[in-house]
Design goal:
The complex is a heterodimer of chains A (220) and B (361).
Chain A (H helix, E strand, L loop, with lengths): L1 H9 L6 H8 L3 H10 L7 E5 L5 H8 L3 E6 L2 H13 L6 E5 L13 E7 L7 H14 E12 L5 H22 L9 H7 L2 E9 L4 E8 L4
Parallel strand pairs in A: 1-2, 1-4, 2-3, 4-5
Antiparallel strand pairs in A: 5-7, 6-7
Chain B lengths: L1 H10 L10 E5 L8 E4 L3 H10 L5 E5 L7 H6 L5 H10 L10 E4 L9 H8 L2 E4 L7 H6 L6 H4 L5 H26 L4 H18 L8 H22 L4 H22 L10 H7 L4 E2 L2 E2 L4 H7 L2 E5 L9 H5 L5 E3 L5 E3 L10 H5 L5 E5 L3
Parallel strand pairs in B: 2-3, 2-4, 4-5
Antiparallel strand pairs in B: 1-3, 6-7, 8-11, 9-10
Helix pairs in contact in B: 4-5, 8-9, 9-11, 10-11, 12-13
Classes of the chains: A alpha/beta (220), B alpha/beta (361).
């Protein structure tokens, strides 16, 4: 959990972002990305919402996918572009500087999968719902939406536990980086509203973290 | 939750105080009602809502990381993407028949109006600088006179921004005295508050254009007093001298901040920190930014009159009236001395007739 908030501090220094994230999360962030990448099949055309330094994009390409990634943070994209050159990902990875507000420009029914890790919890409710609607539109019928993010735990006891652990970390992050993320209330509900039917969900970290896979309902 | 947040916003403005993003109704708005855009600093949204009492309007609260329009735009936290995102995701298009956005002009260093238009299909219009002028601006058909375009720094604004930015430091100082200099705590509280009031209220009357030169004048006077008390007073003078030293330091501190608190003065602190090698504090970068380099003289604004297309964007957004319309309709860089290096004109200039070029070192 500490790692999600530390993320906000590290975004100011994109070059060492992945290395530090891995350290403060004791490898968990990498594990999360690996779990997301494991859902990708060879030949998939994938959209990554908020690709950051392109670490997950690179993992998915290693599995045989072609990835379009976008991010709002130009400094992060610079690192991703460097990765694109050094790892020889030309032709497999295309990067775009935009926020979720630009997703209405994406082609309809194009992607086999849309993925996003630790991005939706940074958005406002409006932005998150918009991003999910647009992701749904950009997916081919039957295409998969794979989201890994921080969520509100399902049971009351865990919610209280989660809040207690989170508050001091959130305050510390706020004081240092002046930013915070917000766990998502009802991710599966938001996905359903966007026309994505529930496939599977794996919760971890005291029920406060989820990996959800949904599927775009095919045709009316 | 509302009052503590207001108080926090008033006294600790160096820390963000965010409010929810998205669409809000002011009064009872309909499909013809104006659409205003602002930042998501809690206090700004509250003040704006109060200033619009009796008006029917839609208010789009856009991402600025909980910081006010001017500061967030300067740090590019309130930017084109924030506005594009709230316009597209809030569902405002389904609420109104027109496609006209009213943007806060102090956000111009962060928001490129032309890009917002291109990405949203909405037309953009700069509103008045002060929320207090909004009602009149709307009443006269969204037109602005020069006074509505210019930033001011009246005594209320000076007290407001001064309190918001300096109270935290004043408070820290008090904690310091309480822990390590208890006998002087009361002196510090009184002298510090008096110095704050003196700087904020007397600022326009003190000689010099910059905050630091203004307080240097006061400090020289206090320095003379310090020497005089050394010569004239015996043992009893120690206390007075301690107070004078507190005042001299407090004035220097408040004065060095003064420029950074207003859109009407050049900042002294950022270029100073950059020169001292302090490139960034937290996520606030000083070194390497165009603004700091303009302030330090490492860059200069260069205006290519031939490239100007007479769109008047620069004239519309400059809070200082630096740009005026020339005889042929093109912009003229008429009052460079009034420029505070906010970059608003640079960001808006489509044909890049205005550039910040690196000067020879």
């Amino acid at each position: 959990m500490f790692s999600y908030v530390f993320m906000k501090i590290l975004e100011g220094r994109p070059k060492s972002y992945d290395r530090w994230m891995d350290r403060v999360s004791r490898g968990r962030v990498r594990e999360i990305k690996e779990a997301v990448a494991a859902e990708i099949k060879p030949g998939d055309r994938v959209l990554e919402i908020g690709c950051g330094t392109g670490e997950l994009s690179s993992m998915m390409i290693a599995r045989g996918a072609a990835v379009d990634g976008f991010d709002l943070n130009p400094a992060m994209l610079e690192v991703a572009e460097e990765r694109l050159r050094t790892e020889g990902l030309e032709g497999r990875l295309s990067l775009l500087a935009m926020g979720v507000g630009g997703m209405d420009g994406l082609q309809t029914d194009l992607y086999d999968a849309v993925v996003s890790t630790l991005v939706l919890s940074e958005l406002s409710d409006d932005e998150r719902r918009f991003a999910l609607r647009q992701a749904s539109r950009a997916l081919k019928p039957g295409g998969r939406l794979i989201i890994a993010d921080e969520v509100v735990p399902r049971t009351r006891g865990r919610r209280i536990l989660h809040a207690l652990v989170r508050i001091p970390v959130t305050v510390a992050t706020y004081l240092v980086s002046r930013a915070a993320t917000r766990p998502i209330q009802d991710l599966v509900g938001d996905m359903a509203e966007a026309g994505i039917s529930f496939g599977s969900e794996k919760r971890s970290h005291a029920d406060a973290f989820t990996l959800v896979v949904g599927r775009k309902e095919s045709g009316p | 939750m509302s009052f503590p947040k207001t108080l926090w916003g008033l006294l600790f403005r160096l820390f963000p105080c965010p409010t929810n993003l998205g669409l809000r109704r002011i009064g009872n708005p309909g499909p013809e009602s104006p659409v205003l855009v602002t930042c998501n600093f809690d206090l700004t949204v509250k003040r704006l809502t109060r200033a619009l009492r009796g008006v029917d309007a839609w208010l789009l609260v856009a991402q600025s990381k909980g910081v006010n329009v001017w500061c967030a735009a300067g740090a590019e936290a309130f930017n084109t993407a924030s506005v594009v995102s709230v316009v597209k995701t809030s569902g405002i298009a389904g609420q109104v028949d027109h496609r006209k956005l009213i943007l806060p002009p102090l956000g111009a260093p962060g928001i490129c109006a032309e890009e917002v238009e291109r990405e949203t299909g909405w037309s953009t219009h700069w509103g008045p600088v002060r929320a207090g002028d909004l009602r009149r601006y709307l009443e006269i058909g969204c037109r602005r006179d020069d006074a509505m375009k210019r930033a001011t720094y009246g005594w209320q604004e000076r007290l407001d921004t001064g309190l918001g930015s300096l109270f935290g430091f004043y408070f820290l100082g008090a904690v310091g005295f309480a822990l390590f200099g208890r006998p002087l705590l009361l002196d510090y509280l009184v002298v510090g508050a008096a110095c704050f009031a003196a700087v904020m209220l007397l600022a326009p009357r003190l000689p010099g254009r910059r905050g630091i030169t203004k307080v240097l004048f006061l400090d020289v006077l206090l320095g003379i007093a310090l020497i005089a008390t050394g010569l004239l007073l015996d043992d009893g003078g120690q206390h007075v001298r301690a107070d004078l030293i507190i005042a001299i330091i407090a004035l220097l501190f408040f004065g060095s901040e003064l420029g950074g608190l207003s859109s009407t003065m050049r900042s002294d602190l950022d270029p100073l920190l950059a020169r001292l090698g302090i490139g960034a504090l937290g996520n606030a970068a000083f070194a390497g930014t165009i603004r700091t380099e303009l302030l330090n003289g490492e860059r200069k604004l260069r205006y290519d009159r031939e490239a100007c297309v007479a769109c008047h964007s620069c004239i519309e957004v400059c809070p200082r009236g630096v740009w005026v319309e020339g005889e042929d309709g093109r912009a003229e860089f008429a009052r460079p001395e009034a420029c505070t290096a906010c970059r608003a004109c640079l960001v808006q200039c489509g044909p890049e007739a205005i550039k910040a070029v690196v000067t020879v070192k």
